[in-house]
Task: inverse folding
């Protein structure tokens, strides 16, 4: 018997002993298993160029896509406002999924409600669900704002949020002047980054453009402030805090829009804070007067930035700035737009990042990397690798489009280290599997699901992205700013050194290289 | 010692009733009336728990429930390892349910096993406008080409499929014919159907009936010689290896397990199940339908069992053995005896650390009742429980066999109610899901996920009980719960002392 009270074995070890192994071997006869030789043959075949060609010829099937659907991004953006309850109109299972997904990544509560539409709503529309739902949410959870988005069910049947919210207010679900911004977020268009954009634009439109016809439109009186938008970001906690620190160092008047850095990082002290932090509704409204709106992620904010530009603001977007040059560009832009000087403190932080790169770049230089993730994240990481002298080789974004591809290609063309790199918009992780077999690289950068690629292709995975379910707390540290760049560098170096150690640790065989100093 | 155990049964009953009244005050009148039917205090001797169940969730309340797709793809079909399960519709559903349920299996993933792959038709706007059938047709071809060792395919419908009038049954039939009778199963588990995951279980069971059992030839032979001791494990999803730590006991008592439904299961096992002499049913809620069907159609008896905690395991082994001859009955006694030293050692180690601690549960299919015995084996006291998607027959079983007098019962509880109940009752442990975990930990209440075993497990069987005991101890007795208040802040409140 393998189990004992003194040394309790769980799933990691329990099944490895002879009792369970014999049991599992005996189970095989009931499974009608494939011939092991055939399994081996197909396994090897999936590694070939021939398989890759068939794999890339896929037109309909997606296997292991690296993207989620719009409402997830809408929920993520909505909780970044003061006491705001995201309300997703449609089937209720979706909301259970978004909440679970966000909680698994952040290891934090994730509050969101559904209008719980079922068959009858599919036939008659979901107006009653909206009316009852708003009334219940308002009374139970005492929000300051309810931000409505939609699941694909409500979109397919064509529910009209604007009309439904208006009717619900007339029926007294919430007070007439209670803020209920909305955004249509069909899951069959775009991805979670699109949903982020739609929801944020919906909220700004609500405050700036007369609250769906119930208030006068705000008149813009330009001031010197800058709005910052983080975009959909698994590192939102660390990153937004770092950006705010930089803005404060520079003395720039600012508003971070959709600031969810507090709600996804509340303390454990005996109190559950369903709402915490967030952009105040007053600040959201006053953001119209800002001189400029800066987006840290272009493809998360295309509509939102156009909207800000239409209101007369200067707009500027980055592509998930990571590392030295991208942070330089960001800091210089902040200084240019605000007219503020860049403080010596930031120059020192920059110098420290340069110092660290100079100390360590020999270990990164020339290493080949595959990267996948959201379009902006891929761009930012590729740019950083180029300046480390590393060679991005495959860059894949399931939710990247043609414009993204072109921009990526221009970036790669600008560096001698980017010459051997291919860009793959709209592809998935099963495509990546073929790439890693046919054109191997030294390291893979991606989210938790990359561990399947690491297992299959033996490409070491550096976990950067969303979601990260199987490592804890990394979202609390920034990867933006010079300090964030240092964190990314350390993540990459740690994996590189671990790999060298793993390859050199066999006693008496390879351990001549098992160096104590690297 | 928590507040909850310091009173008499009558006092607890009165307090729980009062608590329910207090919670209902938050609602608009109409909602309060509806929710009142789902909350109650169990009265000893009653045949059920006195709550309504399996009724639509109320909009806007933050129900914890999921949908029919989650019940079919996520629970019943997803673990069948040698079939490809397509999440048919937009990308999200498959993405959020990808690999998160911990249905363990042995196989070469991507080659002959597919559980932890995310296959989706990733619907775009044009698929909604023009329909998804042509795309589905092509997807099936692409699966055949790229994953040639798959033994079958299921199509798990997401919401839009049923709204746009796609005929996935016709596509399935045509493609099955094209591929020489290949098993292709269309499942109408659109998320808007029914009130919870529960209808998805039922729809998935019916799909097995119609598209697996309906297609095996009457003369179809299992590829093994039947014995009088062949049983099938029904309703065990092998979370963290649960079905394995169950199977080993059944085989040690002399039975032969010919199929696992559905954790680490295969199409061949589903097809062979009509040859079983007895179906043993763990998750009654999700698989009673197919068990009843096999009883009617193939004359296979079924019996429920419970492999959580030594008391219930011993009862169950004896109950299962009761369907067989003396050899098996002796086998059951032999197994119970064999594991008794392990049970004694686990209880000797952990019971003193857990004795008298109170627990509140809120889980899915069988666990709101099934795990109560395991807690009691450790001296713990379940003071509140409820089902996410239970029906009245679940509450009957709970009332008749599991809960104590005056236990607080909450059906389809929502975020608000659950927080208030826990805040007032201050249990020493809450067992629920990922959406609840961090809420209660913030409140300094120890917590274990009772869907995923909090990434531990198995919890079934004797081997699993040792892990269960270890895990409950590490949650309840983690030193961190005594350090959640900053020392310079006010003295700990009564609720914090309770949590200690």
Result:
């Amino acid at each position: 018997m393998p189990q004992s009270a003194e040394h309790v074995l769980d799933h990691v070890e329990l099944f490895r002993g002879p009792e369970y192994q014999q049991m599992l071997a005996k189970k095989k006869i009931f499974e009608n298993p494939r011939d092991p030789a055939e399994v081996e043959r197909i396994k090897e075949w999936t590694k070939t160029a021939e398989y890759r060609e068939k794999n890339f010829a896929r037109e309909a099937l997606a296997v292991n896509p690296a993207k989620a659907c719009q409402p997830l991004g809408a929920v993520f953006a909505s909780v970044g406002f003061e006491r705001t309850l995201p309300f997703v109109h449609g089937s209720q299972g979706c909301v259970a999924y978004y909440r679970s997904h966000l909680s698994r990544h952040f290891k934090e509560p994730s509050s969101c409600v559904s209008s719980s539409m079922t068959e009858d709503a599919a036939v008659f529309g979901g107006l009653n669900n909206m009316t009852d739902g708003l009334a219940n949410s308002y009374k139970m959870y005492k929000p300051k704002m309810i931000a409505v988005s939609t699941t694909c069910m409500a979109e397919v049947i064509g529910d009209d949020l604007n009309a439904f919210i208006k009717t619900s207010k007339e029926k007294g679900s919430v007070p007439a002047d209670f803020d209920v911004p909305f955004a249509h977020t069909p899951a069959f268009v775009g991805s979670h980054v699109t949903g982020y954009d739609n929801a944020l634009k919906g909220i700004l439109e609500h405050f700036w453009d007369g609250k769906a016809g119930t208030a006068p439109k705000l008149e813009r009186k330009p001031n010197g402030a800058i709005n910052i938008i983080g975009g959909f970001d698994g590192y939102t906690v660390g990153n937004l805090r770092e950006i705010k620190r930089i803005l404060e160092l520079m003395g720039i008047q600012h508003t971070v829009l959709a600031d969810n850095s507090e709600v996804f990082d509340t303390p454990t002290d005996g109190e559950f804070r369903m709402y915490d932090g967030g952009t105040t509704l007053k600040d959201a409204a006053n953001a119209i007067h800002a001189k400029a709106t800066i987006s840290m992620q272009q493809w998360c904010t295309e509509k939102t930035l156009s909207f800000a530009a239409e209101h007369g603001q200067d707009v500027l977007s980055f592509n998930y700035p990571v590392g030295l040059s991208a942070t330089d560009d960001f800091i210089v832009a902040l200084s240019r737009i605000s007219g503020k000087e860049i403080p010596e403190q930031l120059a020192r932080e920059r110098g420290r990042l340069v110092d660290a790169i100079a100390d360590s770049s020999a270990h990164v230089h020339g290493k080949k990397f595959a990267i996948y993730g959201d379009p902006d994240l891929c761009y930012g990481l590729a740019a950083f690798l180029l300046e480390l002298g590393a060679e991005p080789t495959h860059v894949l974004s399931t939710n990247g489009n043609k414009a993204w591809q072109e921009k990526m290609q221009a970036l790669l063309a600008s560096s001698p280290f980017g010459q051997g790199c291919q860009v793959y918009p709209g592809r998935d992780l099963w495509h990546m599997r073929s790439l890693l077999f046919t054109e191997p690289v030294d390291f893979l950068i991606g989210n938790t699901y990359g561990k399947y690629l690491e297992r299959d292709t033996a490409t070491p995975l550096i976990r950067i992205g969303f979601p990260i379910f199987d490592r804890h707390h990394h979202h609390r540290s920034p990867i933006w700013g010079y300090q964030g760049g240092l964190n990314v560098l350390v993540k990459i170096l740690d994996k590189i050194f671990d790999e060298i150690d793993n390859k050199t640790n066999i006693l008496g065989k390879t351990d001549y290289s098992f160096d104590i100093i690297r | 010692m928590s507040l909850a155990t310091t009173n008499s049964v009558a006092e607890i009953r009165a307090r729980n009733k009062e608590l329910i009244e207090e919670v209902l005050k938050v609602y608009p009148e109409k909602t309060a009336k509806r929710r009142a039917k789902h909350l109650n205090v169990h009265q000893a001797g009653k045949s059920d728990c006195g709550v309504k169940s399996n009724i639509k969730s109320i909009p806007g309340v933050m129900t914890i429930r999921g949908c029919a797709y989650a019940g079919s793809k996520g629970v019943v079909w997803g673990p069948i390892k040698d079939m490809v399960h397509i999440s048919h519709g937009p990308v999200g559903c498959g993405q959020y349910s990808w690999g998160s349920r911990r249905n363990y299996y042995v196989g070469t993933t991507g080659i002959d096993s597919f559980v932890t792959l995310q296959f989706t038709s990733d619907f775009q706007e044009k698929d909604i406008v023009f329909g998804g059938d042509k795309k589905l047709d092509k997807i099936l071809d692409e699966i055949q080409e790229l994953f040639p060792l798959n033994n079958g395919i299921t199509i798990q419908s997401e919401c839009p499929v049923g709204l746009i009038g796609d005929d996935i049954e016709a596509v399935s039939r045509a493609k099955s014919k094209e591929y020489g009778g290949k098993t292709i199963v269309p499942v109408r588990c659109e998320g808007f159907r029914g009130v919870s995951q529960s209808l998805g279980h039922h729809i998935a069971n019916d799909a097995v009936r119609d598209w697996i059992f309906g297609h095996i030839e009457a003369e179809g032979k299992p590829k093994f010689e039947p014995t009088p001791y062949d049983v099938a494990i029904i309703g065990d999803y092998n979370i963290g290896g649960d079905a394995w730590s169950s199977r080993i006991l059944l085989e040690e008592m002399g039975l032969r397990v010919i199929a696992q439904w559905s954790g680490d299961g295969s199409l061949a096992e589903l097809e062979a199940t009509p040859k079983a002499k007895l179906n043993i049913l763990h998750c009654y809620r999700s698989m009673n339908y197919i068990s009843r069907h096999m009883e009617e159609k193939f004359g296979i008896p079924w019996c429920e069992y419970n492999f959580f905690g030594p008391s219930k395991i011993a009862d169950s082994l004896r109950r299962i053995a009761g369907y067989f001859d003396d050899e098996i009955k002796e086998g059951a006694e032999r197994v119970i005896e064999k594991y008794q030293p392990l049970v004694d050692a686990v209880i000797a180690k952990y019971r003193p650390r857990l004795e008298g601690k109170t627990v509140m549960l809120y889980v899915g299919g069988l666990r709101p009742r099934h795990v109560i015995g395991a807690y009691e084996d450790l001296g713990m006291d379940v003071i509140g429980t409820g089902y996410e998607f239970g029906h009245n027959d679940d509450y009957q079983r709970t009332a008749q066999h599991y809960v104590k007098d005056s236990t607080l019962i909450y059906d389809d509880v929502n975020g608000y109610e659950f927080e208030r109940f826990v805040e007032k009752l201050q249990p020493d442990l809450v067992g629920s899901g990922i959406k609840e975990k961090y809420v209660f930990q913030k409140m300094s209440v120890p917590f274990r996920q009772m869907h995923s075993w909090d990434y531990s497990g198995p919890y079934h069987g004797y081997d699993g009980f040792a892990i269960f005991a270890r895990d409950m101890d590490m949650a309840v007795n983690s030193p961190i719960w005594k350090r959640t208040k900053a020392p310079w802040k006010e003295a700990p409140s009564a609720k914090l002392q309770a949590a200690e």
Chain A touches chain B through 110 residues (CB under 8 Å). The two ends of chain A are 45 Å apart (CA to CA). Residues 481-503 of chain A form the longest helix (23 residues).
